[in-house]
Amino acid sequence: MADKNDVKGMVLDTTQTIVSDNVIIACSPESGCDVSISLGAETVQAIEKLEKYAILAGHRIGEFRVG
Amino acid sequence: MLSNAQLITLADDGEWERLNALIGASSSNTLLSNILESARTAGCRFALLEGPYIDRDFSASFTAFYASLFRPYKKLCKRLHLFSDDLSAALSQGDPSSVSLALEAASPSYMGYLVLRPLVHAPVSHAFLSHAHFSPDPAAEVSVRSDHHVHVLGATLGLAGFPLTQQDTRIGACAQASIWMAGRHFHLKHKGPWFSLPEITSSALLPTDSSITRSLPAGSDYLTSDNMVRALRAMGRHPVFYAPQSTEQGDDWGFDPQDVICQYVDSGIPVILGLNDGQNVGHAAVAVGTVRADVTETDDANPGSSQSAYCSHLLVMDDQRGAYLRLPIDGPLEEPVPFNLRDHLRFMIVPLPNKVFMTSEVADQIARGIVANASLQIDAFRSQLPEQNQSSWPPEAQFYEAADGGGLVARTYLTYGWKYKSRALRNNTCTQLKADVLRRDFPKYVWVTEFSYPHEVCAIDPCARIVRAHVVTDATGSRFWESYLIADIPGVVATWDFDTQNDAEAASPGLTFIATHNEYFPKIRGMQDFTQCGVQQTEA
Description:
The complex is a heterodimer. By secondary structure, chain A is of the alpha+beta class. Chain A has two helices and two strands; from the N terminus they run H-E-H-E. Chain A has helices spanning 4-7, 41-56; strands at 23-27, 65-66. Chain B is built from 17 helices and 23 strands. Chain B has helices spanning 13-23, 30-41, 56-64, 88-91, 96-105, 131-134, 174-190, 197-204, 225-234, 257-266, 341-344, 360-376, 378-382, 387-390, 398-404, 417-426, 431-438; strands at 4-9, 46-53, 77-83, 110-116, 124-130, 140-141, 146-152, 155-165, 223-224, 238-242, 245-247, 250-252, 271-275, 283-292, 311-318, 322-328, 345-352, 409-416, 445-452, 469-474, 484-489, 492-498, 507-514. The longest helix of chain B is centred in the middle third of the chain and has 17 residues, at 174-190.
C-alpha cells in the first residue's frame, strides 16, 4: 500500500486529458482565435416576441372554463 | 376484511355481457363501456374481479363528501383486472400458493385495472391501463408514462402507462380530473405528492370567487384556468399557462401550439388541453403521446419546422371517453373525441417541475439561432484552420446549406442533465463531443434540440432516424446571457463554460473544429443506450 505521503501532490486529471484525434484545432481567445458562436440579434428579437405574446394574451378571470 | 376474487373468462359475447352485468356497466356510462370495448379490441380474454375493495381515492372522496349526504353511500369498491391470456385454468388449481405464482407468471399479459366505485353515474374511480396493450400501434407513442406495480392475491404485477380517472360531477369536474391525472403521474414517476380529488378541488378554490360558486358544491361543474393553475401550484408544480391573443383574424398564439404540445409531451410532461367547440363550458383532456403519420415521401415532410409536423394526432386521456384516445391535429373529427386541436384548443397548461425557467419554444428558438449563427460564420471558421484543412472543411457541408434555407427539422425536448450526458456518451456521437460531455457538469434539466434532414426523421422506427447536430441549453437560462451549454454541429463542437476561478469573466466560449462528422440516433424513450439500434458499446 502506498504511503499516504506518496499521493500528496498527485493531480488526477484523467477526464481533462481525453482528446480526440479528429481535432483540427481548438479555438480559444488565448490561442488568438476570436470567433465564437452566440445568439444573433434576430434570435433575441424572436424570443422577445414570444415573451411579449405571453403577456399580450391576457384574459378576464373566468373566461376559460372547463368542466 | 374478507375479499373475494371472481375469475371471469371472456371468450364470447355472452361472457362479456355477464361481466357488464356483474360490474353494472351499461351504454349509458360512456367511459366504462369505452374502456371495456377497447380492452376487448386489444385482446382481453380474462378478468379478475376483486371485491369488496378499499380504494384510497374513493375513501378520500367518501370522507370529504359522500359520508355527509343523507343518501347512505358505502365506501367499498371493486377492482377489475384485465388479462390478454386466459388464466382460468392456472388460477383454478387448489393450491393457494400456485395462484400467486401463476398470476406473476402471467404478468406480461396483464393489461391493467379499473377501480369501480359505488356511484352509478360515475363508476370509474381510477384506472391504470397498459399503454403497450391499449395503444400497440408502433406509430403511436405514449411518451408520458410511468411504471406501476399492482399487488393482487399475493402477486406483484408490473405495467407501464398513464393513470385515468372519471369526474363524479359532485366533488369535481373534468378540470379536477385532468389535474388528478397529471398529479398522479408525477407521484408515480417522480415521487411527487399524492393528491385526492377533494384535495385538488380544495386547492383550486383558494381563494374562491363568484364565478366558481355558481355551482354547488363549488367547483363541481367547472373550474376556470386560474383555479387549475392554483391547484397545480399547490401540488408543487410550476405551471406555465398558454392562451392565444384574440385578434380580428382569429386566435393568434405567436407560435404553433402543435409544436409546443409535442415538445412537452416528448419531454414526458403531460399537457392539459382546454378544448371548446363553442359551448359556455369547455372540456379538459390530458395529452400524453403522439401518433406519427406514415410519411414516406420527402415532399410530404415539412422542412424548417419541428418534428410535430410528422404527427397526425395527439394521444389524450379523457375522463369522459377513455384512455389513449386519438385527438386529430387537424381535419375531420374522429370518434369518440368530438374535437380537433386546430379548431378547438382554447388554452393549455403545462405543469413544469421546478428549475425550468425557459419554455420549450424559447429553447427551440435558441437552438435554431445557434445553428444559424454557426452557418453564418462558416467562412470565418474556415479561415482559422491550417491551410491544408480548409478545402475539405466543414464535413457534411450540405447541412449548412440546409440550415440557411430552412431545410432542417428540429426536435426539442427537456431531459435531466445526467440523462443527456449518459445518452451522449453511449450514442454514436464523435469522440470530441463525448470528451467535452464527460468533463462537464450539467444543470438538473437541459433542453436538447436535435437537428435532422426531413427525409431522415420521418421513419416510424426511431432507430431508423438520423440526427446530424444537436444543441444543449440550460433550462434555467434566458436570453440575457448565453444559455447554450454544448452545440454539436458538423465540423464544430462549441461550448460555454463557467470558470469558477476567474472572477472577471462569468463564462467563456470554446470552439473545437473537427475533421469528420458523425451521424447518431435520436433520444429514444425507454432506451438507456442504443444497443438495440446496433450501436456497439466499448468494453471497459
